[in-house]
Amino acid sequence: MNALSAAVVEIGKVPAFLRRDLLIALSYRMSFVSELIVLGAQMAVFGFVGRLVDPARLPAYGGSHASYMEFVAIGMVVSLVVGVMTGRIATAMRQEQLQGTLESLLATPTRLSTVQFGSVAFDLIWVPVRLALFLLVVVLTFGLDFEAGGVIKSVVLLLAFLPFVWGLGLVSAGAILTFRRGGNATALVGSVLGVFSGAYFPLALFPDWLQALAEINPFAVVLEGMRGALLGGTGWGALASDLIILVPTSLLALFAGMLAFRLALAREHRNGTLGLY
For residue 1, what pLDDT is reported? Predict the structure, then answer.
């Protein structure tokens, strides 16, 4: 079998993962409702907080200051992407461990990359749909003003950012394989990066050294890039400068995550403890 045929076979296995995760999601329909309630509650809280925030303290995009709700809505979108994609791979591995199917799954003639991608394939479809619905509701409810021309630019930034998030998720999955409950450390790192990225508060409020670190923090880069595109209508030139930082950082994080997961998997195979949970 040549490389092309092998790739086609592996791709053909992804729908099986999609079907499994869809059936699981449909069997827990209340989770959809609870997610919407949580998002709605968060936006209600930020709506009240926004009344306490002086608009003059918020950064200006396109020559005018954004409202706090416009500012924080984009922060919530990126935070949601990070939270879901970081935890999904680790959660999938943990579920397979608890069900006793991880060792059997990895024993099948399926590439490890296919298992990893298949584990998040459903979320790669569902998360964008959920984000689009969330933004639509927020815009209609709070009367937010986003630049329609910035949507494509924002999508490009998110696509460049996803490998970084996936890399964190693979590190978390490797920790789960090794320590069984070791994913919290990675989640903590993600949370710290998120808090100090300006998702909920302007970077200008932080000390100078934190502002300097934010310039190379992928979370902060993608946030400011999306805000500039959606609130200020910035052009493709500004997007290119963000991608120069995002792309190599994301690829490095993805490589580190893949290496960490493979090392953890090799260790479990070597010790004969892959099936233990």
Answer: 56
